[in-house]
Amino acid sequence: MVRKHVSGPFVFAVRDIAHRAGEMREFDIEVPAPEKWGEGLVSVGKGEPVDLEVRLEAVHEGILVTADVQTRYTGVCGRCLTDIAEPLEVEFQELFGYSVGEAIDFEVQDDHVDLETLVRDSIVLSLPFQPVCQPDCPGLDPVTGEKLTAGAVPETPIDERWAALKALTPDQDDVAARPDVSRTEKS
Question: Which domain holds residue 113?
Fold first, then answer.
């Protein structure tokens, strides 16, 4: 079957399998993202390649679409603001029903199915809300704004109003060295 571009790269003609339960067609295509998808720290940029493996199956109620979508998202780490680029793979399955006068989410229109909304929504919903460059990214130092190294914990400065209380609390080394301080365990 030759794929016709009726109104966009995500539109597939189903005239030859419509109302023929059991018929199936498969497609492997690569198309550029028509616009930026995503609004958070990461997104799929306009023109980024989107690979689709699509299977269209005719069933009694309509056309069952199964798709595997692969692309790449770019943006910044939510902790240290380092640039990141990661692959993204999503799958979806949706029934495009034949129009029979009842309201359905997706329907076969003019012997075609348009997958752009499904592809876009699947990708956007799969983007990480708080992306990180690595799982244990330490982030930025809140005082200097410099990227922390692994294992480094920034020292929290003491508010000057509480500094006088520091003189009233003994160091833990002093407590351990004093023999008059007894420690009892609670049962």
Answer: 11-126
Q: Band of the pLDDT at 144, cuts 50, 70, 90?
A: confident
For the whole model, what pTM was predicted? 0.72
Is 46 in contact with 33 (CB distance < 8 Å)?
yes
End-to-end Cα distance, the chain: 79
- In this structure, is residue 137 part of a structural domain? no
Task: Quote the number of domains for the chain.
Answer: 1
Task: Tokens 């990180």: give the residue.
Answer: 132
Which tens digits make up the pLDDT trace of 20-31?
A: 888 999 999 999
Write the pLDDT tens digit of every residue in 158-181: 777 877 777 777 765 555 555 555
Is the residue at 176 inside a domain?
no
| In a domain? residue 62 | yes
Which 3 state secondary structure label does DSSP give 176? helix
At 165, which helix (H) or strand (E)? Answer: helix 163-166
Give a yes or no: residue 46 inside a domain: yes
**CA angle (92, 94, 95) in 5-degree steps:** 165
For residue 180, the model assigns a pLDDT of: 58
Query: DSSP labels for 103-155?
Result: --SSB-BTTEEE-HHHHHHHHHHHS-SS--SSTT---B-TTT-PBPPTT--PP
Distance of alpha carbon 2 from alpha carbon 60, whole angstroms: 24
SS3 181: coil
